[in-house]
Write a structure and sequence with these properties.
Order of helices and strands: EEEEEEEEEEH
Oligomer: single chain
Number of strands: 10
Helix content: under 10%
CATH class: Mainly Beta
Bound molecules: thymidine-5'-diphosphate
CATH superfamily: Jelly Rolls
Shape: globular
Largest sheet: 5 strands, antiparallel
């Protein structure tokens, strides 16, 4: 059974420790995050015109950060779609569970860092958009 999330996708400012030697941003467990960190992965070497994602999760929540380059994250909450252009490594996009999300329009050499609230589980995926809308309409996710 999914734990329904009432929150919306939004940008979270991570802060930047400015230094003439180079800037630094930090994410620390238990400090200002909407969830406990269970997993981190990253997406890179994306060929021009390709996309990643195109699914929703029953349970997993995510933070997505453009560590380098830029890309769009299309999110759909079952009612409306929004597009967030990620291009700064001191900003994270929070994606609640029960949100359709798709990463696209990658600039060359972009790296997307994803921090997730659950271990990897193929059973957590909803890969069919019509099924996603149906589950949202019935309030099951
Ligand atoms: P997937 O999440 O399906 O990528 P996308 O939605 O962008 O197409 O993952 C692609 C492959 O990587 C799939 O075979 C499962 C594997 N994978 C893991 O083993 N662990 C993970 O944490 C993730 C995210 C994917």
């Amino acid at each position: 059974m999914a734990r329904k999330s009432s929150s919306k996708a939004r940008i979270i400012a991570l802060g930047k420790i400015r230094d003439k030697r180079g800037n630094l941003s930090v994410i620390q467990a238990g400090k200002g995050l909407p969830f406990e960190i269970a997993r981190t992965y990253w997406i890179y070497d994306v060929p021009g015109g390709e996309h990643r994602g195109g699914h929703a999760y029953h349970n997993s929540q995510e933070l997505i950060i453009a560590l380098s380059g830029s890309f769009d994250v299309q999110v759909h909450d079952g009612t409306e779609e929004k597009v967030f252009r990620l291009e700064r490594c001191d900003k994270a996009l929070y994606v609640p569970s029960g949100t359709w999300r798709r990463l696209c329009n990658f600039a060359t050499n972009s790296t997307a860092l994803v921090i997730a609230s659950t271990p990897y589980s193929p059973r957590d995926y909803i890969r069919d958009f019509a099924k996603f809308i149906d589950l949202k309409t019935r309030g099951e996710i």
